[in-house]
Amino acid sequence: MRIQKFIKNSFIDYPSHIATVVFTIGCNWKCWYCLNSPLIDTNSYAECDEQEVLDFLANRVGLIDGVVICGGEPTLQPDLINFIRKVKNLGYDVKLDTNGTNPIILKKLVDDALVDYVAMDIKAPFVKYDEITGVKTEIDKVRQSIDILMNSKIDYEFRTTVTPDFSKDDILQIAQSIKGAKRYYLQAYKQPADKNLPKSMDPNDLIEYARLCNDYVPTQLH
């Protein structure tokens, strides 16, 4: 599997877990605000050897609770399932961060009990996906992934990065599309200090959005 780097210990990326975070290379979207945008270019980074990650995990059994696999978009990796099997064989819980564009792989991981927690980004109201992701998006696949998680027995969350592109109605459309889900997180877009990009969101707006979304799905701020 193509891995750019891994963070050995994280206390914030996997709820109630001390976790190792593995970043895969490559993404099928081009969201303008992405903090990991260099990972889109599959030739931009030197790679970390998969065996190095597995050896680290083997030596930390009992000290680390779980492994987070993120990116980029992990489901683009042809060896993802095999890698997760190796991680599970070491006894770790696995959390997958995904954009939901590969429901076939997601269903396989859920059905085979290879993931314990999934965090799926919902980038926009469905009618705005192409605008936000910068590419033509197969919305039916995103919808399928939402259905897979909401009808599964595993733990999961949906989350949206709220940028100045969105109105209150946009966020409510998203909440309505996942009505009845376990949980929904709104996370604030933050303006990078070194880039000429839109200003960060007003925190009061985010609080109001979350309050309104609670009518459809339990919503919190990240």
Draw up the topology in text.
Layout: E1 3-10, E2 19-24, H1 50-58, E3 66-70, H2 80-89, E4 93-98, H3 103-111, E5 117-121, H4 129-133, H5 139-150, E6 155-162, H6 168-177, E7 184-188, H7 203-213, E8 219-221
Parallel strand pairs: 2-3, 3-4, 4-5, 5-6, 6-7, 7-8
Antiparallel strand pairs: 1-2
3D structure, described in words:
This protein is α/β, with parallel strands linked by helices and about 220 residues long. The protein has one domain: Alpha-Beta Barrel (TIM Barrel). It is built from 7 helices and 8 strands; from the N terminus they run ββαβαβαβααβαβαβ. It has helices at about 50-60, 80-90, 105-110, 130-135, 140-150, 170-175, 205-215, and strands at about 5-10, 20-25, 65-70, 95-100, 115-120, 155-160, 185-190, 220. α7 (about 205-215) links the parallel β7 and β8 (about 220). α3 runs parallel beside α5 and α6 runs parallel beside α7. The radius of gyration is 17 Å and the shape is globular. The mean pLDDT is about 90.
